[in-house]
Amino acid sequence: MNILTFPGMVVSSKAGWPELEKIHPAIIKIFAFLVLPLSLIPPAMLYYAGTTYGDDFVVGYGGKPWGWIAIVFFLAEMLTFAGMGWLIGQIAETNKLKIDSHDAYLLAAIAPVPLWLSAFGLFFASVAINMAISVVALACSCGLIYHGIYALCHMHEEIIAMSITYTVISAGLVAWVLLLVIVIAV
């Protein structure tokens, strides 16, 4: 699959998804070359931002144990990936759609890519900039989930795709908030 087709996957069910389904990369390969490296970005950036300008970013964050926060955050991301793959499969099955376990985990691996990349915004010590980047990343992830569900389930009804997307995004937002709570609470 060509990396240049990825932005098209955010806005279309025909751009990249059929090719990706045809390639059918092994889950272990997807994990090793996509999930693992990209999921390391947010913990690394949290550690960098926290240790470099923690108090400048948010008062009181300079003294937090950023090494431990990064480790816990990474482990939580791994659990979230596993849970989201399972959830996508269950929701599709509940709606009487065919999506195999492989494609459910493929979607769970691709959907958070914009969120993982949005962590690079932590190079800027600005809450406003990071919020803006996060909102754009969240919108892109929503597009990936919708178009991924539509393409991988071979759907013809937008309303069902929207319903499944809404449920998956809701669960994803809960997971995302829990990941952020790790940073705030520790």
- The percent range for helix content is over 70%
Kindly report the average pLDDT value: 88
Number of helices: 9
Number of beta-strand segments? 0
Oligomer classification: single chain
- Total number of domains: 1
Strand content: under 5%
Computed Rg: 17 Å
Morphology: elongated
Helix/strand-derived category reads mainly alpha
Q: Which consecutive residue ranges, at least 5 long each, have pLDDT under 50? A: none
What does this structure look like?
The protein has 186 residues and is mainly alpha-helical. The chain has one domain. Helices cover 76% and strands 0% of the residues. It is built from nine helices and no strands. Helix 3 (27-39) runs parallel beside helix 6 and helix 8 packs antiparallel against helix 9. The radius of gyration is 17 Å and the shape is elongated. The protein starts with 5 loop residues before the first helix and ends with a helix. The mean pLDDT is 88.
Short description:
This protein is an all-alpha fold and 186 residues long.
List the helices and strands and how they pair.
Layout: H1 6-11, H2 17-23, H3 27-39, H4 41-57, H5 66-94, H6 101-110, H7 113-118, H8 127-152, H9 158-185
Helix pairs in contact: 3-6, 4-5, 5-6, 5-9, 6-8, 8-9
